[in-house]
């Protein structure tokens, strides 16, 4: 199933994840749910910010970011801070999807305006369930904002 946004374009998701196993699991969960929307993967915080800046200047925007906190180079919290402090990117919903259960990480993510914080389960079924729940809620239920040019 291809889900389209209010602008009639496919909803585009950016996964910021350096663990190839987690990338594979997320892709598999999306495939099982018949989710056919574009999924772009960034393996570092720097790469993610480059993709987001490029998309905010182009005709295709990123509609949702799935962000791991434990990244090489810029941390996920630094990426989140940059996204939410940049007027061209700040309305992009960011779902923190990480293995960290640290209260400091949770508090800091929300203070930096993460839209939600989800701890990755350790078992395969739990992981697939979480990814499908994110997809169902954030792609199918929530009304995502149109690009900044509409603001």
Overview of this protein structure:
The protein has 151 residues and is α/β, with parallel strands linked by helices. Strands 2-1-3-4-5 form a five-stranded parallel sheet, sandwiched between helices. Helix 1 crosses helix 5 and helix 2 packs parallel to helix 3. The longest helix is centred in the C-terminal third of the chain and has 18 residues. The model has no long low-confidence stretch (mean pLDDT 86).
Please write out the topology.
Layout: E1 13-16, H1 20-32, E2 39-42, H2 45-57, E3 64-67, H3 76-85, E4 94-98, H4 103-111, E5 116-119, H5 124-141
Parallel strand pairs: 1-2, 1-3, 3-4, 4-5
Helix pairs in contact: 1-5, 2-3
Summary tags:
151 residues; alpha/beta; Rossmann fold; five-stranded parallel β-sheet; 5 helices; 42% helix; globular
Q: How would you briefly describe this protein structure?
A:
30% of the residues are buried. 42% of the residues lie in helices and 14% in strands.
Number of strands: 5
Structural category is: alpha/beta
Sketch the topology as an H/E string, one letter per element.
EHEHEHEHEH
Radius of gyration: 14 Å
* CATH architectural type: 3-Layer(aba) Sandwich
**Might you state the CATH topology name?**
Rossmann fold
